[in-house]
Each structure stands twice: as structure tokens, then as C-alpha cells.
Amino acid sequence: NMSINLDHPKLSGETTVQNAVTEVAAMVGENVKLRRGFMLSTTGHGVVSSYLHTCPQPGLGRIAGLITLEAEDSSASLDALKRVGSSIAMHIVAAKPLFLSKELVSAAALENERDVLRTQAESSGKPQMAIEKMVEGRLRKYFEDVVLLEQKYVVNDSTNIKTLLNDLSKEVGSKVTIGNFIRMEVGEGIESRPEETAKKEAMACAA
């Protein structure tokens, strides 16, 4: 765990993190607290792109997608990377990828999914060889659901993110790769207390 002093570092000029939190609180008229923070950076010639969903004010949103794109050639157009990066950041918000590539899918997640798919396939009563083929086929669908590079592009589902990157690489004349990505949503990871859940349900019924 890492703790930070909200009076440092400076965000821009004389604006501190604490000042920014105070400004947001005044803007939305609610008590605002900083619960989590993330940092993304590029290691070479690249960009950090972002997308905010449900934007009540400029720079504010309920869901955010962030991504870094890096080009091998330092002469590659950063404007093109920014354009595509913003589109992929929006895709991340909508598609909710869990892993960047198939190679980065955790062994635990992969084994758990195999077990689930094998149990489903065995209920068909087919021979073991056929069951294994069914599992592998459905595993490809799992990768398309949770792996960013394998996902169908939400703006054009006739292509996927890997192909989108290949097309961008051809456009700028240099191989472009994704360094990292983050999807975050306000309130995720916080469990509501029973009384809070009951209150929300009552308010929904009243509405």
C-alpha cells in the first residue's frame, strides 16, 4: 500500500491534489474523498489516452478508461496515437476487459474457466475427445470476452483491437503496442451495508 500527501505533488502550476478534490466537491455539491489513485506513463515515444463516461462536468465522470500506446519509431505521429488511443479508451469503458493479452490471463482464471466449460460440456454426454474440442472452442470465446487484444471493437465489431493496432502501425509506419490500460468505476469494490441496500431499494420503489 502507498500513502500520499494530498498537498503534494503539484498537479499543474500551484494546484495540489487536495485543491483539486476541494474544487470537485464544490463543483458537484457533494462531500468528495479521494479513495484510489492510479498512474500510467509511457516508457518511450507514446501517449496516455483517456475517456470519461457520464460526464456531468469537464474532467469528471463515473467511469474512466485509460491506456498507453507506444510506437517503436520516434518519428511516428503522436496525433494518430492519441486519436486511436481515445477510441480504445472508450472501448475499455464499454467492453470491460480484464487482461491485455491471452498470455497475461492468470493461470487461476484460466483453470477456473476450463473447469466451468468442461462441466458444461460433459453434460452433453459426448465422448471425451469431443468434450475437449468443445472446451477449447468455448475458451476462444472467453478470450474474446475478457482479453483486450482479442475483443471485438465496440465501434466496429467486424474487427478486433489487435487488428485496430495493426492498422494504426501501418498508418504511422511503426509498430504500435499497448503498454498498459486501466478501467475504473466510482464505487467499485465497495460493498453496501444491508441498511444502505434497503434504502436504495425503497427509493427505487418510490420513484
Automatic annotation (TrEMBL):
Q: Any idea where the Translation elongation factor EFTs/EF1B dimerisation domain is? A: 8-188
Kindly give the Gene3D superfamilies that the UniProt entry links to this protein.
Answer: 1.10.286.20, Elongation factor Ts, dimerisation domain (3.30.479.20)
Q: Where in the cell is it found?
A: Mitochondrion
SUPFAM superfamilies named among the record's database cross-references: Elongation factor Ts (EF-Ts), dimerisation domain (SSF54713)
Q: Which controlled-vocabulary keywords does the entry list? A: Elongation factor, Mitochondrion, Protein biosynthesis
GO CC terms:
mitochondrion
Which Pfam families does this UniProt record tie to the protein? EF_TS (PF00889)
One GO term in the molecular function aspect is: translation elongation factor activity
Q: Do you know which InterPro entries this protein is assigned to?
A: EF-Ts_dimer_sf (IPR036402), Transl_elong_EFTs/EF1B (IPR001816), Transl_elong_EFTs/EF1B_dimer (IPR014039)
Domain of life, source organism? Eukaryota
Q: Which GO terms describe its biological process?
A: mitochondrial translational elongation
Family, per entry: Belongs to the EF-Ts family.
NCBIfam families found in the cross-reference section? tsf (TIGR00116)
**What functional role does this protein have?**
Associates with the EF-Tu.GDP complex and induces the exchange of GDP to GTP. It remains bound to the aminoacyl-tRNA.EF-Tu.GTP complex up to the GTP hydrolysis stage on the ribosome.
Q: Any idea what this protein is called?
A: Elongation factor Ts, mitochondrial
Organism (species): Aegilops tauschii subsp. strangulata (Goatgrass)
